Amino acid sequence: MYAQIEKMAAALAPKLTAWRRHLHTIPETAWNERETSAFLASELKRMGYEVITGNPVAGHDTGLVAELRCGGADQPVFALRFDIDGLPVEEASDPEHLPLSLGFQSRHAGCMHACGHDGHAAIGLGCARLLQKLRHHLSGTVRLIFQPAEEGARGAAPVVEKGWLSDASYFLAGHITGRDYGGSEEPDAVPVCSSLATTKFDAVFHGRSCHGAQPEEGASAISALSAAVLALNAIPRHSQGATFLNVGRITAGEGRNVIAGFGRMEAEVRGASTELNHYMEEQAFRIIRHCAAMYGCTADILPQGHAPSLESSPDFCRELAEICGKGLSSVRFAEKPEVFRASEDAAAMLRTVREAGGKGAFLLFPTHTAAPLHSCRYDFDETILPKAVSIFTAAVFHWCGGSLSQPPL
Amino acid sequence: MYAQIEKMAAALAPKLTAWRRHLHTIPETAWNERETSAFLASELKRMGYEVITGNPVAGHDTGLVAELRCGGADQPVFALRFDIDGLPVEEASDPEHLPLSLGFQSRHAGCMHACGHDGHAAIGLGCARLLQKLRHHLSGTVRLIFQPAEEGARGAAPVVEKGWLSDASYFLAGHITGRDYGGSEEPDAVPVCSSLATTKFDAVFHGRSCHGAQPEEGASAISALSAAVLALNAIPRHSQGATFLNVGRITAGEGRNVIAGFGRMEAEVRGASTELNHYMEEQAFRIIRHCAAMYGCTADILPQGHAPSLESSPDFCRELAEICGKGLSSVRFAEKPEVFRASEDAAAMLRTVREAGGKGAFLLFPTHTAAPLHSCRYDFDETILPKAVSIFTAAVFHWCGGSLSQPPL
Amino acid sequence: MYAQIEKMAAALAPKLTAWRRHLHTIPETAWNERETSAFLASELKRMGYEVITGNPVAGHDTGLVAELRCGGADQPVFALRFDIDGLPVEEASDPEHLPLSLGFQSRHAGCMHACGHDGHAAIGLGCARLLQKLRHHLSGTVRLIFQPAEEGARGAAPVVEKGWLSDASYFLAGHITGRDYGGSEEPDAVPVCSSLATTKFDAVFHGRSCHGAQPEEGASAISALSAAVLALNAIPRHSQGATFLNVGRITAGEGRNVIAGFGRMEAEVRGASTELNHYMEEQAFRIIRHCAAMYGCTADILPQGHAPSLESSPDFCRELAEICGKGLSSVRFAEKPEVFRASEDAAAMLRTVREAGGKGAFLLFPTHTAAPLHSCRYDFDETILPKAVSIFTAAVFHWCGGSLSQPPL
Amino acid sequence: MYAQIEKMAAALAPKLTAWRRHLHTIPETAWNERETSAFLASELKRMGYEVITGNPVAGHDTGLVAELRCGGADQPVFALRFDIDGLPVEEASDPEHLPLSLGFQSRHAGCMHACGHDGHAAIGLGCARLLQKLRHHLSGTVRLIFQPAEEGARGAAPVVEKGWLSDASYFLAGHITGRDYGGSEEPDAVPVCSSLATTKFDAVFHGRSCHGAQPEEGASAISALSAAVLALNAIPRHSQGATFLNVGRITAGEGRNVIAGFGRMEAEVRGASTELNHYMEEQAFRIIRHCAAMYGCTADILPQGHAPSLESSPDFCRELAEICGKGLSSVRFAEKPEVFRASEDAAAMLRTVREAGGKGAFLLFPTHTAAPLHSCRYDFDETILPKAVSIFTAAVFHWCGGSLSQPPL
Lengths: 409, 409, 409, 409
Known about the structure:
The structure is a homotetramer. The first copy, chain A, is an alpha/beta fold. Chain A has eleven helices and 14 strands. Chains in contact: A-B, A-C, A-D, B-C, B-D, C-D. Chains A and B meet through α7, β9, β10 and β11 of A and α7, β9, β10 and β11 of B. β9 (about 245-250) of chain A pairs antiparallel with β9 (about 245-250) of chain B.
């Protein structure tokens, strides 16, 4: 049966490419994925899926959930997650950029799929197609979550809030990545054992404006903000693991000769574990409050996104490695999980599943890429798509009623 | 004759008001005073003036100069300066705001005459009219300079560069102000003995962008800029007089998780004397360079405007006070010069004249105002207009051939 | 009679010099003026004074008060103040230094009268001698206050606390100074209309020590203190007058590889008025508290001295100028009061007297000096001593019963 | 033969304890180990060693080197290093502190062997004794280096400079440590694969002193130093591994009302690798220079110690593990090298040996300790001493002519 899955996925390759390329032409930034959601809903309905749109994510109107109910009492829910948002990046216009030379470049000015989520959504459609075909061999419910706003670690929490992970026994998600493992042994899939936890926030400083020639009448939001930047960067390094902080954008002040009454910074902290991230967050918030007060200002801290550290279930990974090793001849699945030196929104979902007694994993799908993630020249080798579809489908098959010894369709 | 001047000025009051109100409807920001310049040129030509437009100010196409050549060998040049630019301020829309209720509010969205330069330009036209009438009693040349871009202390230097002050023996300029002197003895004109020298500049920081998770690859323009803000504010106070510094606007960075490659600050320094301002400037520039270098960045310092401290000629002021005291019954001229706790672009012109052996003064014209300078509710009592015209005209008459004892026209 | 006073003072010159030189040999730092106090007490007792020692200053055992009770119901108390402390300065040892070449250099290693208080104390003894002789022409009480700890602005407050100024109608104090007025018109005495108010304080930072390799366990007092230094220097300049701040000494930390658990700074703020000084003080204290909290530390602020701005009574100064002008032929008394660009402890005493309805003044006594105040080469021209004695004695005589027209002794 | 070595070491245990306890009574801080050096030299001479004292370490007069020349053409030099300095710590005086209750507490007030170097030196003497006995079974040269000033990472570099490692083929050193490995499997020796590289330095800031009321005349070393503290703490975290920085002591300034002309900071940087430490060093030095320049000051950076990251030779460790495993029945030698989260001066020696083609290792000797290293209650279980002697001696025997199959003595 696994050979069958592999064969079906291979046959689907041209369709996967077509889906991905169409999605690449209509990138939409976080919370604005309306055209994308409509396209995905239409394809899923055509396949016969029950599609939940409208408000699948608490407080937002993009994203969608499709379910395949295969029946069987007390049968498990297996949740798959695919992120669908693009980035506010202007796509490269040089002839060597493949999406341009092949004519599938972004049609939305200033927006681009520069993080591979077009590929992730296409993998989602591919899994939907294969699982639909395998439905009579499955039991339980397969839930395909097409999540908006992964960028900025914002979409996962409201998905969790809506309860889409509360009853899930199994969870899988993944990310196409360009990591070069070298040699012939390069894996196609690598489970992640930990990622950087992160908290994204804006700090808004309120001072008191006045003419620059009467400084004592005012309270400079620029001074408070600048002091905070220095002190944030100086948060003591933690000896128990990596911590990071970045103030990425600042804007403040009304005019050259006016004491600034207003300032805003966009910042993020990260930690090699959820606890280390919490350490950074606590320090950062305390510093911001006191830097504001020091200059007679006040500061509001506005949360903008949060992800815990991602921890795949070790036994789930081992079992998945065994399935792939025995069942999928075209896929190299790395046995040893890796640390992912980035943050990933799916962590909140995986944690929800595991805390309720379920299992799951987050996979990296290494493949050739033209440029780093988030670059305007980013593009990836589409041969990874059917491989990812095989792995996800095989996993669902295994945990929802299938077995290695089952005869082919 | 001085009584005659006073009478002529009084008769001109309705016209002065009309000019001022028309100018108030067409405010234009610094270097964009095209409609204003065209209107002034047309009025001046109608009075018979030789008008120089096109390029009266080095490197710019706004502003204008009108000359009245009254003849006489070796006779003096008397330069009068009137500034004409508005501010990027949205005019108030409440019914109590007089320009609105009387229908002469700004017709240029986002722009307003909130610093009284509409009045200054109207005074200029008034002087032009009266001096044209008095021309047969005058000798030498009267040069009326309608200067653009006083705001930000930018326009005076290129006017000086063009040579308009090089041959001037006398110089006068003034500013309508709302200072409340209280009592019945409130003066209509006060000479300024010193103002704040100022240097306006932008500092542009160039760092090296990279992903926030590899901080060692980048060089944060935000860190450099923030360190500079703190250090600039901490420039040691000078014991010899007032010094000020303001960083009024900052903007830096590309995105939350990107080490900032770029930052810009808009700043200004001021000093109670040209030397004190120079002290601040030197310290500020050194700090900016080293703060950039400290974080592996570089910084460009872009000058945006400069004014020395303004120093009226003491004897010129005394003589002018005497003329006004004896000749102009409706005008109270303060004998004691005052410190002007602001910066004024005319300082560069006055200094040029004095350095070449000439004399001159800068006058404040106190009058009732509805709100502080630069406020969207600013408005002033127009009865000051004919008084200012009288004083300027009387001064020109005195130094260009007239005398107190001269018979009336 | 004034001529008589002048003559007596002139005759006393050798004795004044002898007193001053002896005092110069026994300098003692603030609160340690025991040998000095004993010497002064012994001289005053020999003149027949009632001397209060032991505890004339709240909480301390140095300094002394001598009173001359001249009787008369409802007669005024006239308080004169002379400061007596030396400085922790090692006196110069080069042959050109007059105290060395004449053999009256400091015999106390590391301590020196480098601020002229030896002269002030000698003037006090001189006044005591003359007033004793004049006692039958006087009414009321003359109170001679020999104050310890003027340096650091520490001694005046506890003198006031003891009540020595509560019943005083008149107050006089002065300071020998090296200001060069140039020309033959150089005055011998100049009343002070304002001085810099000041607050001296230490800030002690308490952090949490730990090994430098576990920074997250500690809270660095060095980081908190350093942030405070920068922010203190960056307190916005006040537009209404001069303000100063100095952090003059810092010391913190236990060892190179230990997160600092402790830090101390010695600082002072100053302002051209008591209000401006208060502005600086408020800002400084707030900044220190928040810089400590920002880094998880706490800070104690320990007051070390305080002086308000000194304001002589204008009418008292005018009257004194008249007395000197008419009565003392050898003394040039400046009519126009001056700003003293330093802080002076006597301000607290003068304010107490004035707030209770009394009058008084602080005088500068310009004379030739060998080096700036507080320098190890400081020395002053002793011819100022009898002049100062004349002025003080004449003032007491005038306000305590004497009159210009009184016949000579 | 290894059993013989083990037996000899066990027999030596009382002597090892006696040596260690005597050394514990005479702790001397870095570069002052004169009494210690004399005692060691005397013991070594008594054993028949050739002892080099006087100046075995470039520029210093403490420490010593003893050599055992066993002959044989082209035979290897095996260098063993033992550090001998104590710490400026006042030893605990509570009765539970074993050195006190047993009467071998420090006799040098304010100084203590709180880092186990008394034990290291005793191990050195023990090795000397055993190797002397084994000398006829050895070839080549055994060099016993008793190094001063390990604390602060200062002594190793001048030892290397003197050439004591230039001709060494093998190198061994170790450190008694309290790490708790738990369980019955706790090892007695663990090779170190990496330690924190470190650079210790002082930065001396030179400003320009002046009175606090004329700030513009001065250049505040306190401002420069404080800015540097903040910026040093804010050096961007490196993504490739742990980095640390500590400013542990600061002292600056002359007096409260004086602009500080002088300041000093004691600091250190660390990195998980020599490269990461170099990154920190480069950033730190650049920051210090520019912070000084920013405030018109200069800064001197005075190196105070340096250690690269320590990297034992993997094959040497494996071979040593095999020898211990097979030859020493009483010793558990850990196969897997560990990361040492501290800095160790021997790294410079080991690196010198390895760069010249030699091999070596640094070993941790875990044992029970009463308190953390550098604590005033530190004490260790002396049963580790004969074990360490066995291992060192066995290693020398192995690489200098001996073999596992050699018959016993």
